[in-house]
Amino acid sequence: MTTESMTASLLPLLREGKPDAAGWLPRRIAMGAVLAVLLLIPVAVPDITTYGLWIQRAQIYVLVGISLNILMGHLGQISLGHQAFFGVGAFAAALAVVNGGWPFWIALFASAASGAIAAVLLGVIALRLKGLFLALITLAYGVIAENVLFANPSLTGGDAGVNAQPPPGFTTSRAYIYLLFVVMALFYFIDWRLLKSKAGRAILAIRENEYAAASFGVNVVGYKLLAFVVSGALAGVAGAFFAHQPPGGPVISRTFDFQMALTFVLMVAVGGLGSRAGIFIGSATFAILPLWLNSLTHWIPVIGGLLLLLTLTLNPGGVAQQIRPVTNWLIGKPFSLKGEGHGVAAGGAGVRP
Amino acid sequence: MSVLECDDVSIQFGGLKALEAVNLSVNEWEIVGLIGPNGAGKTTFFNCVMGVYAPTRGSIRYRGADVTSMPTHKRTGLGLGRTFQNVGLVKNATVLSNMLTAQHRKIRYGAISGMLGSLASFSEEQQLAENGLEILHFMGLLDYRDEVVSRLPYGLQKLTEIAAVLASDPEFLLLDEPTSGMSPDESHEFGDLLLKLRTELNLTVLMIEHHVPLVARVCDHVYCLNFGQLLAEGRPEEIQRHPEVVAAYLGAEDDDGAA
Predict the structure, then answer these.
(1) For B122-147, what is each residue's pLDDT tens digit?
(2) Rounded to whole angstroms, what are the CA distances from B256 to A208, B46, B98, B187, B253?
(3) Which end of chain B is more exposed for a tag (fewer CB within 10 A), N or C?
């Protein structure tokens, strides 16, 4: 429908209610400060050999968090097998570099492609399932990937693993950390544009009501699979960076176990589904927790479980819900403690496990 | 000319015959009412027309094309637009954001190119926002553009849904109880809107509606369903007097203020 008479007259309305230049300044300064602190951490830490690994782990988990959030937060489907996509990506890159002699940067494409393929295979199954059955199938998928695919000695070297080295130019911990910052920015950019464009809106509409989405012309099957493809590709790339972390070492099948899948789900749920800031905090926390509480390794699942329980019962929006007044202010909304839920995060209960 | 032709549409869920040999047709620019008591199969019929269910028997033709087994999103492409009884919008998103969602089919940039932030996607998004605002203006909803849908009163949600469906460029509207949640005054205004949609946007309408004064005022033709079967059809005033319809529907629901 077009009403020619009023062309271009309504667009300025979009700027209404947004803060003016004076309102932007403190927000920009606050954002800049957060960013500066993040970027300075790798320079400021006292012992880069130890803490460098912590930071990289946190960054890689944030990448996984962004990827998993596309399935759990945007599409609203639980994936208890996400470590499979991550692992496939890790092995694909490691094998391409070590056995195939590919440059790391080209191997990233192999990781993305294999992660996407692994995810689409699960996606096709998931099309027909909902709820508990979907959760069980994704779980089985992850466990099978670990025990059959990754543990196959002729493919992945069995317990010895594939010995992957950091890419040339990024062999020091600090350089790799800054590389990962760039990748994080890229992932966040994709997630941002996804939600601001056709595909993201279609995926959110499917989560809300498949029939309504279809009647707006959304190809429900196609966009569900697209969500799996994008999520799988991003998880695959995250896996490649996981495999090639300095100082280098073997990629072992047992790393990608069910415990890891559970951690991934916990970190996005506790962080807050659908919230970029929440995903960041949740993923980084769950990445560092086991490294930090090294002696309490056996208690980590208990801590994670308790946090999940608290999240689901008291605080379904996760950490994101708690920090929403601040994040809302940062993106230009008025500061309000009333919890102006907006976007997909409000409630977080949109996930149908 | 007949735009929508439903011939012998029947659907069975297990032993339950939800629709039994329903023949219904809608002509160009008509506003056709579909009435009947709860559970009569009205929404099920909509679901058959939109491709949510495949009828066990019968055929559905839209502008001459057989759409009986066409997936829903392709029917939308032919110009069918539909609203839902319980509002088919993304409820935790804003009104304007839903207007963008609804324009999905019109978008020329590819899904991947949008995700990677191509320049084409940025400029086209601007155009979509403008289209959305124009339609909100047309519907008198411009002031609600930044409101989250779930926080609007139900009647406004229903209107927003119609605005969203209009954004998908339909030629034929299927409205499922559009005035539920509206006061008598509001539903009278809604009648004006329907007539305006027809004259200004050339729309043809099939609507499920319980509000008899509205049906009597705007509908050219009315079908009455009961237990999955067509009980009667005709002009609104004929249907209102039809003894079986009165027995099955109006009589049973006169406490609703319907009669």
Answers:
(1) 999 999 999 999 999 999 999 999 99
(2) 31, 24, 32, 15, 5
(3) N
Cβ pair B89:A208 closer than 8 A: yes
Instruction: Give the pLDDT confidence score for residue A217 in this predicted structure.
Output: 95
- Bridge partners, residue B206, by sequence: B32, B174
Q: What is the pTM of this model?
A: 0.90
CA–CA separation, B171 vs A346, rounded Å? Answer: 35
Give phi and psi for B229, each to the nearest 5. Answer: -120, 150
**pLDDT tens profile A35-78:** 999 999 999 988 888 899 999 999 999 999 999 999 999 999 98
Q: How far is the C-alpha of A212 from the C-alpha of B101, rounded, in Å?
A: 11
Q: Strand B172-176 relative to strand B204-208: parallel, antiparallel, unpaired?
A: parallel
Strand pairing of B57-62 and B31-35? Answer: unpaired
Q: What is the C-alpha separation between B7 and A72, in angstroms, rounded? A: 42
Q: How many CB atoms lie within 10 A of CB A59?
A: 26
A201 at B interface, C-beta within 8 A:
yes
* Residue A206: Cβ-neighbour burial (10 angstroms; 0-12, 13-18, 19+): buried
Q: How many Å separate Cα A157 from the centre of its chain? A: 28
Residue B57: Cβ within 10 Å count? 14
B145 touches chain A (CB under 8 A): yes
Contact criterion met (CB < 8 Å) for A214 and B71:
yes
Which residues in chain B touch residue A1, judged by CB atoms under 8 angstroms apart? 131, 134-135, 138, 166-167, 169, 201
DSSP B96-111: HHHHHHHTGGG--S-H
Q: Does A127 lie at the interface with B, CB-CB under 8 angstroms? A: no
**CB-based contact (8 Å) between B171 and chain A?**
no
Interface of B with A in 53-82 (CB under 8 A): 71-73, 76-77, 80-82
C-alpha to C-alpha distance for B257 and A51, rounded to whole angstroms: 72
Across residues A105-134, what is the average pLDDT?
Answer: 93
Where are the alpha helices (H) located in chain A, listed in sequence order? Answer: 21-44, 48-69, 82-98, 104-126, 131-144, 153-156, 173-195, 198-208, 210-215, 220-243, 258-271, 276-292, 300-314, 318-330
How far, in Å, CA of B41 to CA of A23, rounded?
55
The burial class, CB within 10 Å (0-12 / 13-18 / 19+), for B153 is exposed
d(CA A160, CA A163): 8
Q: Which residues of A touch B50 (CB under 8 A)?
A: 211, 214-215
The shortest CB-CB distance from A11 to any of B97, B102, B130 is to B130
Closest CA to B75 of B97, B60, B58, B95: B60
Q: How many CA atoms lie within 13 A of A37 on its CB side?
A: 5
Q: Is A14 an interface residue toward B (CB < 8 Å)? A: yes
Of B100, B129, B166, the CB nearest to A1: B166
